[in-house]
Design goal:
This protein is an alpha/beta fold. Helix content is about 45%, strand content about 15%. It is built from 16 helices and eleven strands. The protein has a six-stranded parallel beta sheet, with helices on both faces. It has a five-stranded mixed beta sheet with strand order 1-2-4-3-5, sandwiched between helices. Helix 7 links the parallel strand 6 and strand 7. The longest helix is centred in the N-terminal third of the chain and has 21 residues. It holds the Pfam family ELFV_dehydrog.
Length: about 375
């Protein structure tokens, strides 16, 4: 059933602006959601996905854009949160004309929203979008961009995992720990590399057999299991959800043996209250938008003239940020997910008071 207009206003009530973008000539159907510009222009990737309905796409873009506001705030960036989704199968629907039409819609927002890569889009796609739009980051290295943002996304998750290990076991070392990675696409593959290099025992799964084969070829010691259900039921020290959101369900919490959850997926908690169930079971959750901010840091750095070394140094700070979240959680007596929200909201409130809604002419 389609959402009524009143429902649309209710679920998007936190957002500054939601734009529906259509271009019949190219088949473009997209939604751009700007959650907050209190800290600066909104930055967030464009997801290209075959949603079952416009309602599903809307819910996803609203949740993702809100997460980007919190991610940028917690990472200490002077950026707000936004996200976009293009509805369709990128394998068949993606084309240069469609991407350029989408770029014109982003351009029409005058710099209130900067786009970048996400699921289903790549740096070469950003180059096409940039032919019509000035507000694009995550471009190819050939065009002066940061390239694949999954590199520092994985690096940041690895740093967050080290921080969680420090709190849980008294040392950041993951040597000898068993880490289960669900989803070994762009980010998951890089994360496996970091884990193997430090001597962790890695178990992986993915619905994409080609992605699994790439990992198996690169890291022969990695063990592969047939499903996420099999993975979460395995003996693990750390569970790393690196596919789509909603991975941490009540059922997963019940069977999970891991003491730490730390992964790259966005919106990992399936519903409010899961964070409390995790705490009751003694499972330490590293909030997703805290640890997966490395990609945002990477593409944000591009706006200053990209330096990988500078961006990596900033992403290394995710270790300290994650420790700070766990410290606040302990002192306030709340789950880490709530502590992370409090830190992000505090920065948006305190700095946002000085800036208000971001407008292009104000910059």
């Amino acid at each position: 059933m389609s959402l009524a207009m009143s429902d649309l206003f209710e679920i998007g009530s936190e957002h500054e602006q939601v734009v529906f973008a259509n271009d019949p000539a190219t088949g473009l159907q997209a939604i751009i959601a700007i959650h907050s510009t209190a800290l600066g222009p909104a930055l967030g990737g464009t997801r290209f996905h075959p949603y079952a309905s416009t309602d599903d796409a809307l819910r996803d873009v609203l949740n993702l854009s809100r997460g980007m506001s919190y991610k940028a705030a917690l990472a200490g960036l002077d950026l707000g949160g936004g996200k976009a989704v293009i509805i369709g199968d990128p394998r068949t629907a993606k084309s240069e004309p469609l991407l350029r039409a989408y770029g014109r819609h982003v351009q029409s927002l005058g710099g209130r929203y900067y786009t970048a890569c996400d699921v289903g889009t790549f740096s070469v796609d950003m180059d096409d979008i940039a032919r019509e739009c000035s507000f694009v980051t995550g471009r190819t290295v050939a065009h002066g961009g940061a390239g694949d943002s999954s590199v520092l996304t994985a690096y940041g998750v690895f740093q967050g995992m080290r921080a969680a290990a420090t709190v849980e076991w008294g040392s950041p070392s993951l040597e000898g720990r068993t880490v289960g990675v669900a989803g070994v696409g762009k980010v998951g593959h890089h994360l496996v590399k970091h884990l193997v290099e430090v001597g962790a025992h890695v178990v992986v799964t993915d619905v994409n057999s080609a992605a699994v084969e790439l990992v198996r070829d690169a890291f022969p010691a990695v063990r592969v299991v047939g499903s996420t259900e099999e993975l979460v039921a395995s003996p693990l020290d750390v569970y790393a959800p690196c596919a789509l959101g909603g991975a941490i369900t009540d059922e997963v919490v019940e069977v999970l043996s891991a003491r730490i959850i730390c992964g790259a997926a966005n919106n990992q908690l399936a519903h409010p209250g899961v964070e409390k169930a995790l705490e009751e079971r003694g499972i330490r959750y590293a909030p997703d938008y805290c640890v997966n901010a490395g990609g945002l840091i990477q593409v944000a750095d591009e706006l200053e003239g990209f330096s990988f070394e500078r961006a990596q140094q900033r992403a290394t700070g995710i270790y300290d940020t994650t420790l700070g979240v766990f410290e606040l959680a302990a002192s306030d007596g709340v789950p880490p997910a709530i502590a992370a929200d409090r830190l992000a909201e505090r920065r948006m409130r305190e700095v946002g008071r000085l800036r208000g809604t971001w407008l292009p002419q104000a910059r």
